[in-house]
Amino acid sequence: MSRLSKRLWINIVLALCWVGIVMSSTTTQVAKTTIPIPNHFQNVKVLRVLDARNHIVQEEIGIRAKNIAETPVSEYYYTIPASIEQHVASITAFLRKQQKISLTIEKAGFDSEKEIQLYKVILDQPLQPQEDIRLGIHISYTHVLKPLPAKIPQVARQLLLYRGNVYLYSPYASKEMKTTLQVPTALIVSFTGGDGLVQQKGNKLVYGPLNDLEPYAYHELQCHFESLGPLITVTNLERDLQVSHWGNNLAVEEHYTVRNDGAGLDDNFNRAQYMRSAPVHGSTNMLKEISLELPVGASDAYFRDEIGNVSTSHFRNERTRSLLEIKPRYPVFGGWTYNWYHGYNVKLRSFLRYQKSTGDYILNVNFVDNAKNMAIDKARVRIVLPEGATDVKIYPNMDLDYVQEGKHFTNFDSTGRYEIILEKKNVVYEHQKPIQITYKYPTYRLLQKPLVVSASLLSLFVLSIIVSKLPFSINDTKQKSNLKKE
Question: pTM value?
C-alpha cells in the first residue's frame, strides 16, 4: 500500500470518528425537566406595587385567589423567571387580614423547560372549593437598577433604568390586575408597557386595570427615571461579636467594603471642580458621608481605615440609639470603593437573658445591622461565646449558606472559646433579624480564667525561685577545682 493510500484511509477513519462523536453528543443531550402545577386557582384580583425609590427594589403583591378545583387545596404556587431569580434576596408570604399572618413559602423546584423557579405557599388551613383567599407576597430584589448612561460628568444628575414585567408572572389565569411603579422623583424620562393602559401620576406609573390575562403573561416594562444619591453596595461585610460574662460586655467589630454602583465618571476626577460645586453635591450620586445606627448605650466607639484613624467622624448617644457618622477620606463616585472597620462595646444584659427553668442562657443578636438602604453581597458573622460554654444550639431564623462551629483561643485561654461562623450572600434589610443562640454556662466557669492566670503566675514564681538557686557561675567552679588540687 502506497503512502498516499495510507493517508487517505487515516483521514477517512478520523472523519468517521468525528461524525460519531458529534452524533453521540447530539443524541445524549440533557433532558429538560418539567414540573406540573395543578390548575387549582384563579387570580380574581391582583394588585402589585413596585417600589424603586431605593437601591433595593421592593415588590408588594396582593392576590385574591379562588379555588376552582373540586377538592380542598392547601398549596398556592408562585413562579419567577430564572433571569430574575438571581436578583431575589428575600421572599415572604402572608395572609392579608386585619393582622398579617405569616405563611410558609419554600422553593418547589426549578422547571428547566420553562426556565422558571417555583415557590410553594403553604396555607394555614385547606381552602374549600369555590372559596376565596387573600394572599400577600413580598419580594426584595438587588442589582436590578442600572445607570443609563453608564458614565456621566462629575457634576450631573443620575438616571437609572428599571426593567420588569407589567403583569404578574403567575401559573394561574388572572381576571383583573393593576401594577404601580414608584420611582424617587417625578422626572421620568421615558416608560414603556401597558399598551396604552398606563398613566403617570407624579412619581408613579399606574398600569391597568388589565383584564383576562393568561397564565405566564409577560409584557416588558421599562422606566428611565432620575435618581439622586449613590447606589450603595457592601461587597463584603465581616462582623465579629465577642461575649464576656466576666465583664458583662458584648464587643462588636465590623469590617465594611463599600462600592458605589451608580453611574461612573466620564473623565478624570477634578478636585477644583469638586470644591466649587459643593452646594449641588446633594443632587449627584457621590457618597460623602455614612451614618450607622448602633445599639443604645454603645461606648468606646472607634473608626479606622487602611491609613489609620479618621478624624472626620462623630459619635453620639441618643435616647433610643447611638449614632456613628463617618466621612470617607475622598468622595466615593460611581464605581469607586471604600473600606473601613469600626467597633464598640455595649452592655451584655441588653442581648442576653437567663432562663431558670432550663438553665440556659439565651443570646439574641442581629445577623446584620444598618442594611436598610444598602445591598450586602456577602455577610460573614463570627460569634465567640465565653470559655466553658456547652450545649450550644443555634436558631438562625433564616436560610444560611454556611455554618461552622469550632474553637477560638485568646490570651490565657486553656480550653478555648466556642466559636460560631455564619455566612450568607445577597443580604438585605429583611435579613436584619435576631440570631438566637442558647448555651449553658455554669457559674464556676467564671473562675476558670482567674485560676489559670493565678496558676501561671505561681508557676512562673516557683520557676524563678528554682532558677535563682542554681549555680551558673563558671569562675566559682574553677576556684573550687583549684582548691581541691592544692
Answer: 0.83
